[in-house]
Structures are given as structure tokens and as C-alpha cells.
Design goal:
With 278 residues, the chain is an alpha/beta fold. It is built from seven helices and 13 strands. The protein has one domain: 4-Layer Sandwich (Nitrilase/N-carbamoyl-D-aminoacid amidohydrolase), CATH 3.60.110.10. The two termini are 24 Å apart.
Amino acid sequence: MTIKIALIQLRVVDSKEKNLKNAIDLIRIAKKEKDANVVVLPECFNAPYTADSLQDVAEEIPSGETCRALSNAARDYGVHVVGGSIVESFSGRLYNTCTVWGPEGDLVATYRKVHLCDSSLSGKTTVAETKLFTAGSKYATFTVGETRIGLGICWDMRFAEFATAYRTMGCDLLIYPAVCDVPTGEQHWELLAKARALDNQTFVAFCSPARDTHAKLIPYGHSLVVDPWGRVIQRATEFQEIVVADLVLKELSDVRRRIPVFEQKRTDLYELKVDCTA
């Protein structure tokens, strides 16, 4: 089996309505013109990444405007849509939440960002996430065919144990919608994607917004897909575009047979305990 994944590196503007229209148009192109069966949007794709803007677009899941638009797009185009992330309002709290919609328009996974970020390599913290959001506490996976896919959001990519927990659950692809600033991206973006893929012998996809030099947090762009050998197989520029990659799943068994690190772990010395029913 092959998964054709499309990363939608869209340009985020100061209008929820325009961002949603752009996202839906690009989902249509990803499916109709590029034949993707999994389409991914960036973190906080429906508003600029500032505290005020994010609070203004908060909505309930699954009844909110963004959720309805993503559900309709997934159903209309018959594709899995990984809805980047949006600001979820629930019981008086805000969460940075990724929703996944199946080809019938059904909500098949919901993931609340576990690791919240207050750090910035550029020296400026645009959004102090621990003050704005409540951290999630659960893993989230979904399946496409027989392929199990694990979800993270941006800062989650820095935690090796988190990714390995997903591999322990049987995931073959890890998807991270993200907003990463340029200084951090130049140093760590590709390195982290390669590390998570190589450590866990999985495919890894990072999906960023397009670069906007007028934004308070200027996104790095360069959405990319890495294979289980740690090789970048597709990479975007900094501009708005759709990055498409064919994930040849038989490569997984090859790399795991030739480099059997998961069979060689010293569980007498260390062990990762995870709820595999997540």
C-alpha cells in the first residue's frame, strides 16, 4: 500500500473566513489534481499566531465553523483531512487541538497539544502557550487502510519519548502540524524531523504555514516529509504551496529488518510504558 500525503503550506491572513476558504480550495486541489488520500493543514491555520487573534477564533469541537468546514471538505472530496490545529474552547478552557476528518466527513481523531511552548530561539515569545492553553494529556491515532498514524503538534516534535510511544503503539507515520519561527527552523526543523523518523523507523511529516514577513511570528515554512531511513523525500520552499509525497509502506519492513533496533532495546535497563489502547 502507498499513502499519498499532501502538506498544505498555506499563507495565514488576518481573516478566519479567508483562511478557511483558502484551506478548502487547497484541500480540493490536493485531492482532485494531486490525488492525495491524506491532506494536512498547519498548526493554528485559521488565524495569525498571536494571543489575541487565537482567542478570537476559538470554537467548540465538533460544532464550530472551522470543524464544519473541514468535515464538509473531507466528505465532498473523499479524503482524510488532518485539520492542522485550531483553538478549541471547552468548559471555560482553551486547547490547541488537531482534528482529523474521515472521507465520510466523520470526526475520527482529536488531539490536544501535550507539550506547550513558551520558548523562542529568536528571543521573543509571541505566544506564551502555558498562559493561553491547557495542555492535553492523551495520545491520538487514526488509521488509513492498515496504516496507523500518530499525531503531535509543533513543540511535541522535540520529545523523543513521545514519538517512540507512538511507534510502540504500532504507528508507521507521525504527523506534526507546526508553527516554527525562522531562527528555530533554520537550526532545528529538518534535524528534528530526521531524528524522529530515524529513531522510530517511521515516516514523519511536518506541516508549516507559508512564510509571512509581516507577521509577529514569521513562520519558517519548508514543510517536509522524511522516510524511515531519515531521508527528506519532499520539501517545500517558504511560499504557499502543496507538498505531495508517496509513502511506500513496504520500506518500513525493510529498514526494520535491516536495522532491528526495536528488537535490541534493553528493557531490563529501561522501558517505555504506554497505554497502547490510546
